[in-house]
Design brief:
Length: 563
Protein backbone atom coordinates (compact mmCIF):
# COMPACT_ATOMS: atom_id res chain seq x y z
CA UNK A 1 0.00 0.00 0.00
CA UNK A 2 1.34 3.35 -0.95
CA UNK A 3 0.05 6.73 0.08
CA UNK A 4 1.05 9.75 -1.98
CA UNK A 5 -0.01 13.33 -1.88
CA UNK A 6 -2.08 14.57 -4.81
CA UNK A 7 -0.73 17.48 -6.85
CA UNK A 8 -3.95 19.56 -6.98
CA UNK A 9 -5.43 21.34 -4.04
CA UNK A 10 -8.92 22.60 -3.59
CA UNK A 11 -9.80 26.14 -2.93
CA UNK A 12 -9.75 25.66 0.87
CA UNK A 13 -6.11 24.57 1.01
CA UNK A 14 -6.75 21.05 2.32
CA UNK A 15 -4.62 18.42 0.67
CA UNK A 16 -5.67 15.10 -0.73
CA UNK A 17 -3.80 11.80 -0.86
CA UNK A 18 -3.88 8.92 -3.29
CA UNK A 19 -3.89 5.45 -1.68
CA UNK A 20 -2.57 2.68 -3.93
CA UNK A 21 -2.83 -1.02 -3.32
CA UNK A 22 -0.26 -2.84 -5.42
CA UNK A 23 -0.56 -6.64 -5.55
CA UNK A 24 2.41 -9.00 -5.97
CA UNK A 25 5.23 -6.70 -5.15
CA UNK A 26 7.78 -7.32 -2.41
CA UNK A 27 7.25 -5.62 0.89
CA UNK A 28 9.60 -2.81 1.43
CA UNK A 29 12.23 -4.00 4.04
CA UNK A 30 12.75 -0.61 5.32
CA UNK A 31 9.21 -0.49 6.24
CA UNK A 32 9.27 -4.04 7.44
CA UNK A 33 12.36 -3.35 9.66
CA UNK A 34 10.69 -0.56 11.39
CA UNK A 35 8.55 -2.86 13.35
CA UNK A 36 9.83 -4.34 16.61
CA UNK A 37 11.44 -7.72 16.50
CA UNK A 38 9.79 -9.39 19.32
CA UNK A 39 7.39 -12.23 19.67
CA UNK A 40 4.40 -10.05 19.98
CA UNK A 41 5.37 -8.31 16.93
CA UNK A 42 5.85 -11.51 15.11
CA UNK A 43 2.48 -12.62 16.10
CA UNK A 44 1.12 -9.35 15.08
CA UNK A 45 2.91 -9.54 11.79
CA UNK A 46 1.80 -13.05 11.31
CA UNK A 47 -1.67 -12.10 12.22
CA UNK A 48 -1.47 -9.10 9.98
CA UNK A 49 0.05 -11.16 7.33
CA UNK A 50 -2.70 -13.67 7.68
CA UNK A 51 -5.26 -10.94 7.70
CA UNK A 52 -3.50 -9.46 4.76
CA UNK A 53 -3.67 -12.68 2.91
CA UNK A 54 -7.26 -13.07 3.80
CA UNK A 55 -7.78 -9.56 2.84
CA UNK A 56 -5.94 -10.14 -0.39
CA UNK A 57 -7.91 -13.30 -0.94
CA UNK A 58 -11.05 -11.41 -0.20
CA UNK A 59 -9.80 -8.61 -2.33
CA UNK A 60 -9.04 -11.02 -5.07
CA UNK A 61 -12.44 -12.54 -4.70
CA UNK A 62 -13.94 -9.12 -4.52
CA UNK A 63 -11.98 -8.10 -7.57
CA UNK A 64 -13.11 -11.17 -9.35
CA UNK A 65 -16.65 -10.57 -8.23
CA UNK A 66 -16.14 -6.93 -9.11
CA UNK A 67 -14.87 -7.88 -12.55
CA UNK A 68 -17.77 -10.28 -12.95
CA UNK A 69 -20.08 -7.65 -11.66
CA UNK A 70 -18.48 -5.15 -13.98
CA UNK A 71 -18.88 -7.56 -16.81
CA UNK A 72 -22.44 -8.14 -15.80
CA UNK A 73 -22.89 -4.40 -15.37
CA UNK A 74 -21.28 -3.84 -18.72
CA UNK A 75 -23.54 -6.45 -20.26
CA UNK A 76 -26.48 -5.01 -18.35
CA UNK A 77 -25.46 -1.56 -19.45
CA UNK A 78 -25.28 -2.73 -23.00
CA UNK A 79 -28.66 -4.37 -22.58
CA UNK A 80 -29.95 -1.22 -20.97
CA UNK A 81 -28.55 0.80 -23.82
CA UNK A 82 -30.19 -1.58 -26.26
CA UNK A 83 -33.39 -1.47 -24.26
CA UNK A 84 -33.09 2.30 -24.11
CA UNK A 85 -32.63 2.45 -27.85
CA UNK A 86 -35.59 0.11 -28.29
CA UNK A 87 -37.56 2.21 -25.87
CA UNK A 88 -36.55 5.33 -27.72
CA UNK A 89 -37.58 3.68 -31.00
CA UNK A 90 -40.78 2.43 -29.40
CA UNK A 91 -41.37 5.90 -28.02
CA UNK A 92 -40.88 7.37 -31.47
CA UNK A 93 -43.24 4.75 -32.90
CA UNK A 94 -45.70 5.53 -30.17
CA UNK A 95 -45.46 9.21 -31.00
CA UNK A 96 -46.02 8.37 -34.64
CA UNK A 97 -48.92 6.08 -33.71
CA UNK A 98 -50.29 8.82 -31.47
CA UNK A 99 -50.15 11.27 -34.32
CA UNK A 100 -51.76 8.70 -36.62
CA UNK A 101 -54.41 8.01 -33.99
CA UNK A 102 -55.07 11.72 -33.68
CA UNK A 103 -55.33 11.97 -37.47
CA UNK A 104 -57.61 8.93 -37.56
CA UNK A 105 -59.63 10.38 -34.72
CA UNK A 106 -60.02 13.64 -36.64
CA UNK A 107 -61.02 11.69 -39.74
CA UNK A 108 -63.44 9.64 -37.67
CA UNK A 109 -64.92 12.87 -36.28
CA UNK A 110 -65.26 14.22 -39.84
CA UNK A 111 -66.78 10.96 -41.02
CA UNK A 112 -69.05 10.97 -38.01
CA UNK A 113 -70.17 14.52 -38.86
CA UNK A 114 -70.73 13.55 -42.45
CA UNK A 115 -72.61 10.44 -41.40
CA UNK A 116 -74.66 12.55 -39.05
CA UNK A 117 -75.47 14.98 -41.88
CA UNK A 118 -76.24 12.09 -44.20
CA UNK A 119 -78.38 10.50 -41.54
CA UNK A 120 -80.26 13.76 -41.14
CA UNK A 121 -80.62 14.02 -44.94
CA UNK A 122 -81.78 10.41 -45.10
CA UNK A 123 -84.19 11.10 -42.27
CA UNK A 124 -85.52 14.17 -44.06
CA UNK A 125 -85.73 12.24 -47.32
CA UNK A 126 -87.55 9.45 -45.55
CA UNK A 127 -89.95 11.98 -44.02
CA UNK A 128 -90.41 13.64 -47.41
CA UNK A 129 -91.01 10.23 -48.97
CA UNK A 130 -93.54 9.36 -46.31
CA UNK A 131 -95.33 12.70 -46.78
CA UNK A 132 -95.10 12.37 -50.56
CA UNK A 133 -96.58 8.90 -50.48
CA UNK A 134 -99.28 10.09 -48.10
CA UNK A 135 -100.10 13.20 -50.13
CA UNK A 136 -99.83 11.78 -53.64
CA UNK A 137 -103.00 11.12 -55.62
CA UNK A 138 -101.72 8.03 -57.35
CA UNK A 139 -100.91 4.61 -56.00
CA UNK A 140 -97.37 3.22 -55.86
CA UNK A 141 -96.46 -0.41 -55.18
CA UNK A 142 -92.83 -1.47 -54.61
CA UNK A 143 -92.01 -5.13 -55.21
CA UNK A 144 -88.75 -6.98 -54.65
CA UNK A 145 -86.95 -9.15 -57.15
CA UNK A 146 -89.11 -12.10 -56.13
CA UNK A 147 -92.24 -9.89 -56.48
CA UNK A 148 -92.72 -9.63 -52.75
CA UNK A 149 -94.35 -6.51 -51.33
CA UNK A 150 -91.84 -3.98 -50.00
CA UNK A 151 -93.85 -0.79 -49.68
CA UNK A 152 -97.10 0.71 -50.97
CA UNK A 153 -99.18 3.86 -50.73
CA UNK A 154 -102.69 4.21 -49.36
CA UNK A 155 -104.30 4.37 -52.82
CA UNK A 156 -103.05 0.86 -53.62
CA UNK A 157 -105.31 -0.56 -50.92
CA UNK A 158 -108.29 0.53 -53.05
CA UNK A 159 -107.12 -1.85 -55.78
CA UNK A 160 -105.44 -4.63 -53.77
CA UNK A 161 -106.68 -6.25 -50.57
CA UNK A 162 -103.42 -5.68 -48.68
CA UNK A 163 -102.49 -4.21 -45.29
CA UNK A 164 -99.14 -3.05 -43.83
CA UNK A 165 -98.77 -6.47 -42.20
CA UNK A 166 -98.69 -8.04 -45.69
CA UNK A 167 -95.27 -6.61 -46.52
CA UNK A 168 -92.94 -9.40 -47.55
CA UNK A 169 -95.66 -11.57 -49.08
CA UNK A 170 -95.81 -12.30 -52.84
CA UNK A 171 -98.11 -10.01 -54.78
CA UNK A 172 -99.49 -13.04 -56.60
CA UNK A 173 -101.26 -14.06 -53.38
CA UNK A 174 -103.63 -11.09 -53.58
CA UNK A 175 -106.57 -10.36 -55.83
CA UNK A 176 -107.07 -6.92 -57.39
CA UNK A 177 -109.90 -4.88 -58.90
CA UNK A 178 -108.23 -4.30 -62.28
CA UNK A 179 -109.09 -6.07 -65.53
CA UNK A 180 -105.39 -6.85 -65.86
CA UNK A 181 -104.70 -10.58 -65.83
CA UNK A 182 -101.08 -10.25 -67.00
CA UNK A 183 -99.94 -7.98 -64.17
CA UNK A 184 -97.60 -10.56 -62.57
CA UNK A 185 -96.16 -11.72 -65.89
CA UNK A 186 -95.58 -8.11 -66.96
CA UNK A 187 -93.78 -7.43 -63.65
CA UNK A 188 -91.47 -10.39 -64.28
CA UNK A 189 -90.90 -9.19 -67.85
CA UNK A 190 -89.87 -5.73 -66.57
CA UNK A 191 -87.30 -7.30 -64.25
CA UNK A 192 -86.00 -9.54 -67.03
CA UNK A 193 -85.97 -7.04 -69.91
CA UNK A 194 -85.51 -3.81 -67.91
CA UNK A 195 -88.01 -2.19 -70.26
CA UNK A 196 -90.92 -0.16 -68.80
CA UNK A 197 -94.48 -1.25 -69.56
CA UNK A 198 -97.54 1.00 -69.58
CA UNK A 199 -101.24 0.16 -70.02
CA UNK A 200 -104.53 1.95 -69.59
CA UNK A 201 -106.66 -0.49 -67.59
CA UNK A 202 -110.28 -0.36 -66.52
CA UNK A 203 -111.28 -1.49 -63.06
CA UNK A 204 -114.34 -3.53 -62.19
CA UNK A 205 -116.05 -0.43 -60.75
CA UNK A 206 -115.87 1.31 -64.18
CA UNK A 207 -112.86 3.50 -63.38
CA UNK A 208 -109.77 3.89 -65.54
CA UNK A 209 -106.12 3.71 -64.45
CA UNK A 210 -102.81 4.21 -66.21
CA UNK A 211 -100.60 1.38 -64.91
CA UNK A 212 -96.83 1.87 -65.33
CA UNK A 213 -94.26 -0.81 -64.46
CA UNK A 214 -90.61 0.26 -64.16
CA UNK A 215 -87.48 -1.44 -62.82
CA UNK A 216 -86.54 -0.53 -59.25
CA UNK A 217 -82.95 0.75 -59.33
CA UNK A 218 -80.81 1.22 -56.22
CA UNK A 219 -78.42 4.15 -55.78
CA UNK A 220 -75.59 1.99 -57.11
CA UNK A 221 -77.68 1.22 -60.23
CA UNK A 222 -78.63 -2.30 -59.32
CA UNK A 223 -82.02 -3.80 -60.17
CA UNK A 224 -83.83 -4.73 -56.97
CA UNK A 225 -87.42 -5.26 -58.04
CA UNK A 226 -90.14 -3.38 -59.87
CA UNK A 227 -92.22 -0.26 -59.14
CA UNK A 228 -95.91 -0.18 -60.13
CA UNK A 229 -97.78 3.12 -60.25
CA UNK A 230 -101.56 3.44 -60.64
CA UNK A 231 -102.83 6.81 -61.83
CA UNK A 232 -106.61 7.32 -61.75
CA UNK A 233 -107.49 8.86 -65.13
CA UNK A 234 -111.26 8.46 -64.93
CA UNK A 235 -111.95 12.20 -64.70
CA UNK A 236 -109.35 12.95 -67.38
CA UNK A 237 -110.79 10.27 -69.66
CA UNK A 238 -114.30 11.63 -69.18
CA UNK A 239 -112.95 15.11 -69.84
CA UNK A 240 -111.12 13.86 -72.93
CA UNK A 241 -114.29 12.16 -74.17
CA UNK A 242 -116.24 15.35 -73.57
CA UNK A 243 -113.46 17.34 -75.22
CA UNK A 244 -113.49 15.04 -78.22
CA UNK A 245 -117.24 15.46 -78.52
CA UNK A 246 -116.84 19.22 -78.15
CA UNK A 247 -114.01 19.28 -80.67
CA UNK A 248 -116.07 17.18 -83.07
CA UNK A 249 -119.02 19.50 -82.66
CA UNK A 250 -116.76 22.53 -82.93
CA UNK A 251 -115.18 21.09 -86.06
CA UNK A 252 -118.60 20.44 -87.55
CA UNK A 253 -119.76 23.92 -86.62
CA UNK A 254 -116.53 25.38 -87.99
CA UNK A 255 -117.02 23.44 -91.20
CA UNK A 256 -120.62 24.62 -91.39
CA UNK A 257 -119.50 28.19 -90.77
CA UNK A 258 -116.69 27.86 -93.27
CA UNK A 259 -118.94 26.30 -95.91
CA UNK A 260 -121.82 28.64 -95.18
CA UNK A 261 -122.75 31.11 -97.87
CA UNK A 262 -123.57 33.61 -95.14
CA UNK A 263 -120.58 35.84 -94.34
CA UNK A 264 -119.42 35.06 -90.80
CA UNK A 265 -116.17 36.36 -89.36
CA UNK A 266 -114.56 37.12 -86.00
CA UNK A 267 -112.62 40.20 -84.99
CA UNK A 268 -110.86 41.25 -81.85
CA UNK A 269 -112.46 44.06 -79.89
CA UNK A 270 -109.85 46.44 -81.25
CA UNK A 271 -111.12 45.59 -84.74
CA UNK A 272 -108.47 43.11 -85.95
CA UNK A 273 -109.97 40.25 -88.00
CA UNK A 274 -108.95 36.78 -86.76
CA UNK A 275 -111.44 34.50 -88.61
CA UNK A 276 -112.85 34.78 -92.13
CA UNK A 277 -115.12 32.19 -93.78
CA UNK A 278 -115.89 31.45 -97.43
CA UNK A 279 -119.13 33.40 -97.36
CA UNK A 280 -117.12 36.48 -96.39
CA UNK A 281 -114.67 35.79 -99.22
CA UNK A 282 -117.53 35.56 -101.73
CA UNK A 283 -119.30 38.68 -100.48
CA UNK A 284 -116.39 41.05 -99.96
CA UNK A 285 -113.89 39.61 -102.45
CA UNK A 286 -111.00 39.42 -99.93
CA UNK A 287 -109.36 36.03 -99.40
CA UNK A 288 -108.75 34.64 -95.92
CA UNK A 289 -105.05 35.57 -96.04
CA UNK A 290 -105.88 39.08 -97.19
CA UNK A 291 -108.43 39.66 -94.44
CA UNK A 292 -106.88 38.09 -91.32
CA UNK A 293 -104.79 40.55 -89.37
CA UNK A 294 -106.43 43.64 -90.92
CA UNK A 295 -108.67 46.08 -89.10
CA UNK A 296 -112.27 45.41 -90.01
CA UNK A 297 -113.34 49.07 -90.22
CA UNK A 298 -110.36 49.96 -92.43
CA UNK A 299 -110.50 46.90 -94.70
CA UNK A 300 -114.24 47.15 -95.36
CA UNK A 301 -114.58 50.91 -94.96
CA UNK A 302 -117.37 50.28 -92.45
CA UNK A 303 -119.84 53.14 -92.00
CA UNK A 304 -122.49 53.03 -89.29
CA UNK A 305 -125.45 55.09 -90.54
CA UNK A 306 -126.27 57.82 -88.03
CA UNK A 307 -123.39 56.79 -85.76
CA UNK A 308 -119.73 55.69 -85.85
CA UNK A 309 -117.74 52.50 -85.46
CA UNK A 310 -116.39 53.73 -82.10
CA UNK A 311 -119.93 54.22 -80.78
CA UNK A 312 -120.85 50.77 -82.09
CA UNK A 313 -117.98 49.25 -80.08
CA UNK A 314 -119.04 51.18 -76.97
CA UNK A 315 -122.62 49.93 -77.27
CA UNK A 316 -121.35 46.40 -77.98
CA UNK A 317 -119.19 46.53 -74.85
CA UNK A 318 -122.10 47.72 -72.72
CA UNK A 319 -124.85 45.40 -74.02
CA UNK A 320 -122.83 42.45 -75.33
CA UNK A 321 -124.57 42.46 -78.71
CA UNK A 322 -125.49 44.79 -81.58
CA UNK A 323 -127.93 44.51 -84.47
CA UNK A 324 -128.30 46.95 -87.30
CA UNK A 325 -127.35 48.02 -90.78
CA UNK A 326 -123.83 48.87 -91.93
CA UNK A 327 -122.39 50.21 -95.15
CA UNK A 328 -119.37 48.15 -96.22
CA UNK A 329 -117.09 48.33 -99.24
CA UNK A 330 -115.99 45.29 -101.28
CA UNK A 331 -112.54 44.69 -102.72
CA UNK A 332 -113.66 45.98 -106.14
CA UNK A 333 -115.09 49.17 -104.61
CA UNK A 334 -118.80 48.31 -104.58
CA UNK A 335 -120.82 49.76 -101.72
CA UNK A 336 -123.00 47.25 -99.89
CA UNK A 337 -125.81 47.63 -97.42
CA UNK A 338 -125.19 44.98 -94.77
CA UNK A 339 -127.57 43.67 -92.15
CA UNK A 340 -125.19 42.80 -89.30
CA UNK A 341 -125.56 40.89 -86.03
CA UNK A 342 -122.61 41.10 -83.61
CA UNK A 343 -122.13 39.21 -80.33
CA UNK A 344 -119.28 39.99 -77.92
CA UNK A 345 -117.70 36.94 -76.24
CA UNK A 346 -114.78 36.67 -73.81
CA UNK A 347 -112.59 33.67 -74.66
CA UNK A 348 -109.33 33.02 -72.74
CA UNK A 349 -109.32 36.60 -71.53
CA UNK A 350 -109.77 38.02 -75.04
CA UNK A 351 -112.87 39.95 -76.07
CA UNK A 352 -113.93 38.64 -79.47
CA UNK A 353 -116.74 39.96 -81.65
CA UNK A 354 -118.58 37.30 -83.65
CA UNK A 355 -120.23 38.99 -86.61
CA UNK A 356 -122.77 37.49 -88.99
CA UNK A 357 -123.69 39.63 -91.98
CA UNK A 358 -126.17 39.49 -94.81
CA UNK A 359 -126.10 41.52 -97.99
CA UNK A 360 -129.41 43.39 -98.25
CA UNK A 361 -128.30 45.75 -100.99
CA UNK A 362 -130.52 44.12 -103.61
CA UNK A 363 -133.36 43.77 -101.15
CA UNK A 364 -133.09 47.43 -100.26
CA UNK A 365 -132.98 48.31 -103.94
CA UNK A 366 -135.94 46.00 -104.53
CA UNK A 367 -137.80 47.59 -101.65
CA UNK A 368 -137.12 50.99 -103.13
CA UNK A 369 -138.14 49.70 -106.52
CA UNK A 370 -141.28 48.20 -105.02
CA UNK A 371 -142.06 51.52 -103.46
CA UNK A 372 -141.51 53.19 -106.80
CA UNK A 373 -143.54 50.50 -108.56
CA UNK A 374 -146.27 50.80 -105.99
CA UNK A 375 -146.34 54.52 -106.51
CA UNK A 376 -146.18 54.01 -110.25
CA UNK A 377 -148.89 51.37 -110.06
CA UNK A 378 -151.07 53.66 -108.00
CA UNK A 379 -150.46 56.39 -110.51
CA UNK A 380 -151.09 54.03 -113.41
CA UNK A 381 -154.25 52.66 -111.87
CA UNK A 382 -155.56 56.15 -111.34
CA UNK A 383 -154.58 57.08 -114.88
CA UNK A 384 -155.97 53.82 -116.24
CA UNK A 385 -159.23 54.29 -114.42
CA UNK A 386 -159.34 57.80 -115.78
CA UNK A 387 -158.58 56.49 -119.27
CA UNK A 388 -161.19 53.72 -118.89
CA UNK A 389 -163.72 56.24 -117.64
CA UNK A 390 -162.94 58.53 -120.54
CA UNK A 391 -163.05 55.65 -123.05
CA UNK A 392 -166.35 54.51 -121.63
CA UNK A 393 -167.89 57.99 -121.77
CA UNK A 394 -166.54 58.75 -125.23
CA UNK A 395 -167.48 55.32 -126.58
CA UNK A 396 -170.97 55.71 -125.21
CA UNK A 397 -171.14 59.15 -126.72
CA UNK A 398 -170.16 58.03 -130.21
CA UNK A 399 -172.01 54.69 -130.20
CA UNK A 400 -175.34 54.43 -131.88
CA UNK A 401 -176.50 51.39 -129.94
CA UNK A 402 -175.79 49.48 -126.77
CA UNK A 403 -174.28 46.57 -128.69
CA UNK A 404 -171.95 48.89 -130.58
CA UNK A 405 -170.95 50.51 -127.31
CA UNK A 406 -170.26 47.12 -125.74
CA UNK A 407 -168.13 45.87 -128.63
CA UNK A 408 -166.08 49.04 -128.88
CA UNK A 409 -165.56 49.28 -125.13
CA UNK A 410 -164.52 45.63 -124.85
CA UNK A 411 -162.00 46.01 -127.68
CA UNK A 412 -160.47 49.15 -126.25
CA UNK A 413 -160.28 47.74 -122.74
CA UNK A 414 -158.68 44.57 -124.15
CA UNK A 415 -156.07 46.69 -125.94
CA UNK A 416 -155.44 48.57 -122.73
CA UNK A 417 -155.11 45.30 -120.83
CA UNK A 418 -152.62 43.86 -123.31
CA UNK A 419 -150.46 46.96 -123.09
CA UNK A 420 -150.53 46.74 -119.29
CA UNK A 421 -149.56 43.06 -119.43
CA UNK A 422 -146.41 43.91 -121.38
CA UNK A 423 -145.57 46.61 -118.86
CA UNK A 424 -146.12 44.25 -115.95
CA UNK A 425 -143.82 41.66 -117.57
CA UNK A 426 -141.09 44.31 -117.79
CA UNK A 427 -141.69 45.56 -114.22
CA UNK A 428 -143.07 48.76 -115.70
CA UNK A 429 -139.69 49.57 -117.21
CA UNK A 430 -141.19 49.81 -120.69
CA UNK A 431 -142.51 47.74 -123.62
CA UNK A 432 -140.96 46.59 -126.86
CA UNK A 433 -142.67 48.38 -129.77
CA UNK A 434 -142.75 45.31 -132.05
CA UNK A 435 -144.16 43.08 -129.28
CA UNK A 436 -146.77 45.70 -128.47
CA UNK A 437 -147.84 45.91 -132.13
CA UNK A 438 -148.07 42.11 -132.56
CA UNK A 439 -150.09 41.78 -129.36
CA UNK A 440 -152.62 44.36 -130.50
CA UNK A 441 -152.88 43.12 -134.12
CA UNK A 442 -152.93 39.39 -133.37
CA UNK A 443 -156.75 39.07 -133.13
CA UNK A 444 -157.17 40.61 -136.58
CA UNK A 445 -154.66 38.42 -138.45
CA UNK A 446 -155.11 35.10 -136.66
CA UNK A 447 -156.17 33.38 -139.90
CA UNK A 448 -153.34 34.87 -141.99
CA UNK A 449 -150.40 36.36 -140.01
CA UNK A 450 -148.63 37.32 -143.23
CA UNK A 451 -151.09 40.15 -143.72
CA UNK A 452 -149.02 42.27 -141.37
CA UNK A 453 -145.36 43.09 -141.86
CA UNK A 454 -143.72 44.59 -138.77
CA UNK A 455 -140.23 46.09 -138.65
CA UNK A 456 -137.55 44.31 -136.61
CA UNK A 457 -135.68 47.36 -135.34
CA UNK A 458 -135.79 47.13 -131.52
CA UNK A 459 -137.32 50.15 -129.85
CA UNK A 460 -138.34 50.25 -126.22
CA UNK A 461 -141.25 52.50 -125.37
CA UNK A 462 -141.40 54.02 -121.90
CA UNK A 463 -144.34 52.99 -119.72
CA UNK A 464 -146.16 56.29 -120.20
CA UNK A 465 -146.16 55.78 -123.99
CA UNK A 466 -146.84 52.05 -124.19
CA UNK A 467 -150.52 52.29 -123.20
CA UNK A 468 -151.33 55.10 -125.68
CA UNK A 469 -149.54 53.28 -128.50
CA UNK A 470 -151.53 50.15 -127.69
CA UNK A 471 -154.77 52.06 -127.97
CA UNK A 472 -153.62 53.65 -131.24
CA UNK A 473 -152.70 50.26 -132.76
CA UNK A 474 -156.09 48.93 -131.67
CA UNK A 475 -157.97 51.82 -133.31
CA UNK A 476 -155.91 51.58 -136.53
CA UNK A 477 -156.53 47.82 -136.72
CA UNK A 478 -160.24 48.32 -136.00
CA UNK A 479 -160.57 50.94 -138.73
CA UNK A 480 -158.60 48.71 -141.16
CA UNK A 481 -161.01 45.90 -140.40
CA UNK A 482 -164.08 48.05 -140.99
CA UNK A 483 -163.08 49.92 -144.13
CA UNK A 484 -159.41 49.45 -144.72
CA UNK A 485 -156.88 46.82 -145.73
CA UNK A 486 -158.20 44.13 -143.36
CA UNK A 487 -161.66 44.41 -144.96
CA UNK A 488 -160.37 42.62 -148.05
CA UNK A 489 -158.64 39.25 -148.31
CA UNK A 490 -155.63 40.67 -150.18
CA UNK A 491 -155.17 43.68 -147.93
CA UNK A 492 -151.80 44.11 -146.21
CA UNK A 493 -150.51 46.44 -143.49
CA UNK A 494 -146.84 47.48 -143.32
CA UNK A 495 -145.77 48.81 -139.95
CA UNK A 496 -142.34 50.37 -139.85
CA UNK A 497 -140.52 52.92 -137.80
CA UNK A 498 -137.32 54.84 -137.70
CA UNK A 499 -135.45 56.14 -134.68
CA UNK A 500 -133.59 59.41 -135.25
CA UNK A 501 -130.90 60.39 -132.80
CA UNK A 502 -129.89 64.00 -132.32
CA UNK A 503 -127.29 64.27 -129.58
CA UNK A 504 -129.22 62.87 -126.64
CA UNK A 505 -132.66 63.54 -128.17
CA UNK A 506 -134.49 60.77 -129.95
CA UNK A 507 -137.38 61.08 -132.41
CA UNK A 508 -139.49 58.06 -133.31
CA UNK A 509 -141.21 58.13 -136.70
CA UNK A 510 -143.80 55.36 -137.07
CA UNK A 511 -145.54 54.68 -140.40
CA UNK A 512 -148.78 52.64 -140.71
CA UNK A 513 -149.20 51.87 -144.38
CA UNK A 514 -152.20 49.99 -145.74
CA UNK A 515 -152.34 48.43 -149.21
CA UNK A 516 -154.77 46.20 -151.13
CA UNK A 517 -157.79 47.71 -149.49
CA UNK A 518 -160.69 49.77 -150.89
CA UNK A 519 -160.34 53.47 -151.59
CA UNK A 520 -161.06 55.51 -148.49
CA UNK A 521 -162.81 58.81 -148.75
CA UNK A 522 -162.07 61.57 -146.30
CA UNK A 523 -164.90 61.88 -143.82
CA UNK A 524 -165.96 65.12 -142.25
CA UNK A 525 -167.32 63.33 -139.23
CA UNK A 526 -164.74 62.84 -136.43
CA UNK A 527 -165.33 59.84 -134.19
CA UNK A 528 -163.75 58.86 -130.91
CA UNK A 529 -161.38 56.45 -132.67
CA UNK A 530 -159.98 59.25 -134.75
CA UNK A 531 -159.56 61.34 -131.61
CA UNK A 532 -157.65 58.49 -129.95
CA UNK A 533 -155.34 58.12 -132.94
CA UNK A 534 -154.58 61.81 -133.13
CA UNK A 535 -154.50 62.74 -129.42
CA UNK A 536 -153.81 59.63 -127.34
CA UNK A 537 -150.00 59.78 -127.65
CA UNK A 538 -148.60 62.75 -125.70
CA UNK A 539 -146.55 65.28 -127.72
CA UNK A 540 -147.07 63.26 -130.90
CA UNK A 541 -147.63 64.68 -134.38
CA UNK A 542 -150.05 62.49 -136.37
CA UNK A 543 -150.61 62.77 -140.10
CA UNK A 544 -153.08 60.64 -142.04
CA UNK A 545 -153.16 60.34 -145.83
CA UNK A 546 -155.93 58.60 -147.72
CA UNK A 547 -155.06 57.15 -151.13
CA UNK A 548 -156.71 54.89 -153.62
CA UNK A 549 -154.85 51.86 -152.21
CA UNK A 550 -155.37 52.60 -148.53
CA UNK A 551 -154.50 54.91 -145.66
CA UNK A 552 -151.03 55.95 -144.54
CA UNK A 553 -150.67 57.15 -140.93
CA UNK A 554 -147.43 58.75 -139.84
CA UNK A 555 -146.71 59.39 -136.17
CA UNK A 556 -143.73 61.44 -134.97
CA UNK A 557 -143.14 61.30 -131.24
CA UNK A 558 -140.11 62.34 -129.17
CA UNK A 559 -138.75 59.71 -126.78
CA UNK A 560 -137.17 60.45 -123.38
CA UNK A 561 -133.45 61.17 -123.32
CA UNK A 562 -131.14 58.23 -122.76
CA UNK A 563 -128.90 58.36 -119.72
Amino acid sequence: MQVKPADDHDDHGSGTAVVLFIEGEAVDLAIEGSFPKNGAASETVARLREELQQTQAQLRTTREESDGANEELRAANEELQSINEEYRSTSEELETSKEELQSINEELQTVNSELKLKLEAVSRAHSDLQNLMAATDFGALFLGSSLRIKRFTRQVTELFSITPSDEGRPISDFAHQLEYESLVSDARAVISNLAPIQHEIRSRDERWYVVRLRPYRTVDDKIDGVVLTFVDTTDRRHAEDALKVSERRLYQQTQLVDLSRDPIFTWDFDGTIIEWNRGSEQLYGYSRDEAIGKRKDLLLGTIVPGSSFAELRTKLLGEGHWNGELNDRTKDGRQLIIESRIILETIDGRRLALESTRDVTERKAWDEQQKLLLGELTHRVKNTLTVVQSIAHQTRRYSKSYDEFTDRLDGRLTALSKAHSLLVDSDWKGADLASLARTQLEPYIADNPSRVRIADEPVSLPSDLATPFGLVFHELATNATKCGAFSRQAGIVDLSWTLHKRDKDRLLTLVWRESGGPPIAVSNVTGFGTILIERAIPNAMVRREFGSDGMVCTIDVPLPKTS
